[in-house]
């Protein structure tokens, strides 16, 4: 099953429908009906399926179907094939996160045989890697459904350790509109690059302050909110005072930290620069746009879903991670969520991505225990 799933090139820019069709047919063959939630162009779809009673909420196993690009990466084997070497499987998505989906799908006959009164839901999403886009349509569909999953396990790579929290992320763009002039007459222009640099420097100061003063949560690495500028573009020629400059920055915040406060602080900094810009032209200005937001995940360590994940893995503690997932969005929609899946985030997104066979065995043990538990609930 891992081989089949890795074989579909589901890089986020591509359609994922071939993979979704394959999964839908597979579920059909086992008598499990699935529902698709398409994007606006019907090029991509989320899949949602329920094994067992349809009239009540159950345990959702969720994973994203898309993978990050392999462009410019040096791969020793075909990234869209599985190469087995040294007790590892190599291929794009082996860790992030097709092995989890494959193990869950392979367990479908077992889930059916368990004949449980608690349903298992399988959710596959698209465009997770480009900002958790696809899952939002699925959540909308679940919000309007008569029943929704009572808890969710997302199989992102955590080395099969239950994870109850991750940071939130805001992706922002700043556009500075200046005023062009000959650089010999720079006093007549508004230099968009320099003003952008001023704001970037403020972002850097805020990032340093977060690092120096917290708040801190030692469960995360690093244990504080980070802010950084990722790209910048501006100006046309050295002898022209640049009119436009644009840069993208992000805030990755602890669940306890409020990104709105940081955004407001930056907006105040920008506002303070405006008078000197407007003195030369009222048409100059500074704009901020938030183009993506992923809420933080923060599930109680003694919640039902966290205890379930612990009992299925045998772990006696829960962890926190710094990478974002769809979990924050599920939690926001009222579905308690933990992250627990095979493989390591260390291998994700890299050339020669791999997963250890032992991780796959642990994931198999996890779904066997889940099926056992469902069976016992039926017997009870
Ligand atoms: Zn992932």
Structural class: alpha+beta
Average of per-residue pLDDT values = 96
Largest sheet: 6 strands, mixed
How large a portion of the residues is in β-strands, by DSSP E? 15-25%
- Helix proportion of residues, in percent? 25-40%
Q: Helix count, per DSSP?
A: 10
Q: What is the element string, with H for helices and E for strands?
A: HHEEEEEHHEHEEEEHEEEHEEHEHEEH
Straight-line distance between termini: 33 Å
Shape verdict? elongated
Give me the side-by-side strand order of the main sheet: 1-2-6-3-7-17
In short:
With 380 residues, this protein is α+β, with helices and mostly antiparallel strands. It has helices at residues 2-6, 17-29, 94-106, 108-114, 134-143, 192-213, 259-278, 304-313, 327-332, 357-379, and strands at 34-38, 45-51, 59-64, 83-85, 88-90, 120-125, 151-154, 163-166, 168-177, 181-182, 226-234, 240-241, 244-253, 285-294, 297-298, 319-321, 337-339, 354-356.
Q: Keywords, please?
A:
binds zinc ion, four-stranded antiparallel beta sheet, alpha+beta, single chain, 10 helices, 380 residues
Structure description:
The chain is of the alpha+beta class. The protein is 34% helix and 24% strand. The protein has helices at 2-6, 17-29, 94-106, 108-114, 134-143, 192-213, 259-278, 304-313, 327-332, 357-379, and strands spanning 34-38, 45-51, 59-64, 83-85, 88-90, 120-125, 151-154, 163-166, 168-177, 181-182, 226-234, 240-241, 244-253, 285-294, 297-298, 319-321, 337-339, 354-356. Helix 3 (94-106) runs parallel beside helix 10, helix 4 (108-114) packs parallel to helix 10 (357-379) and helix 6 runs antiparallel to helix 7. The mean pLDDT is 96. The structure holds zinc ion. Zinc ion binds next to helix 3.
